[in-house]
Amino acid sequence: MYNTLRVILSVLFLMATFGIYGQSPIYNKTTTDNRKLDSIINESWYEQDARWNITDKYNYFYSVNGSTDSILRYTRDQESGNWTYMTKWVHIYDQFLRDTLTTELWWDTELTQWYIWNKIQKSYNTNDSLIQYVYSGWGNTPYQIVPLYKINLEFENEFRSRSTVYVFDLNTSQWTNSHSEVYEYNNMGDLTLQNSFIWDVYLNQWNPSTTEKTSFDASGKKINYIRKEWNINEEDWTDELKINYSYNENKKPVVETYYEWNQIKQLWIPYTKITYDYEGNTVVKKLYNAKLWNGIFPPFIGAHAWEIFSIDEYTYNEYEELIIHVSHGWTGDEFVWNIFKKSYFYSTHQSTPVNNWSAEKITIYPNPASNFIFISVPENLGAIEFEVFNLKGSKVLHQTITETCQININGLVQGLYLYRLGNKDSFKIGKIIIK
Asked: 3-state SS string over 395-429?
């Protein structure tokens, strides 16, 4: 039972941590935040002492080539104020600077030494695309590291087309199918369809599990998400979850509304809402839960349909890099919001300039394109650099632009490319399809 639960939790952790979007388990950077952190320090409010106490911190270390070498997490003894090791992540790179091994270690306070908790080995193909994760951790015996599961990734036209999870059977020492996901994309490279399958050990076949469909607007913003679950008894899809997204005039997120399908009433019932408010360099994220409606239907009309559950404030510097995260909690007895946690992000490394160009100032068209692309720029903007990269990260086109112009792209093969347009002070990035 222990091993089964551990494998399930590990699979969920790995898919969430190193999945399609490749987010860090420690610090999810914003799209414009490319700095190297020195440390993150967390403070928590202690009601009994009526004061803020520093509870833990992360320290980041880098190799000479700038890659993340290790991350150390410390916990702080509140009585003595001394720091104690807690967790350590160590990264190993190959000769191509690809992250091939991540090891997580925990500090044994009794033995005063590190022990390996788990490790993740990563393999790449000749195109530098990540094609496999192998997760190893404790088996039936503590401190004994054994394979637990692996994920194989398949690609088509440089897009990830399928991921398959295998679980390692410690009794037979064999890999067995667990579940699989198949992906589809639109012509801008956005993930629009994700179908999941569960392996049937009795029928020796893949059975459908869930299907997830995402819709985007013309600018590439996500506007709708629907997940359906396969009903074995009815042999048909059943609605399960829906999310609607809205944005302000600056194309920043404003509201995310979550709905669950009510099979009896055959209606979507909203149950959670997230709102984003922008106050200078601070983004205020509020999470709401739907109030109980005691059988009155539909209950969700106006602001009184929701009750606020949590508030998070994210403050950024002038380069749109996160520097402070403040979490607010509701105190039921006092009926007020109180701050219960603060996180500070420190970096002495050079920051990345913020992208302060609007879509109205610079236009790239057509997209998709075949022979030429046109770049329309405002007057007196000065010299800017236009660079195009394939999905391997190789630069395939570079041109200096001083005015609206036409660029020949006949030399590029069909597929999805990323472009960077800017100078030393600011830039914009995007996707372009060559057909």
From this structure: EEEEEEECCCEEEECCCCCCEEEEEEEECCCCEEE
pLDDT in tens, 158-187: 789 999 999 999 889 999 999 999 999 988
Strands across the sheet containing 427-434:
395-401, 384-389, 415-422, 427-434
Residue with tokens 């570079």: 398
As a whole number of Å, the end-to-end CA separation of the chain is 52
Q: What is the DSSP string of 261-323?
A: EETTTTEEEEEEEEEEEEETTEEEEEEEEEPP-TT-SS---SGGGEEEEEEEEEEE-TTS-EE
> 431: exposed, middle or buried (C-beta count within 10 Å: 0-12, 13-18, 19+)?
middle
**CA-CA distance, 40 to 281, in Å (whole number)?**
19
Q: Which domains does the chain have, with CATH numbers?
A: 2-346 (2.40.128.720), 363-434 (2.60.40.3080)
Which is nearest to 302 in space by CA: 312, 293, 294, 313? 293
Name residue 306's amino acid. Answer: W
Q: What is the value of pTM for the model shown?
A: 0.76
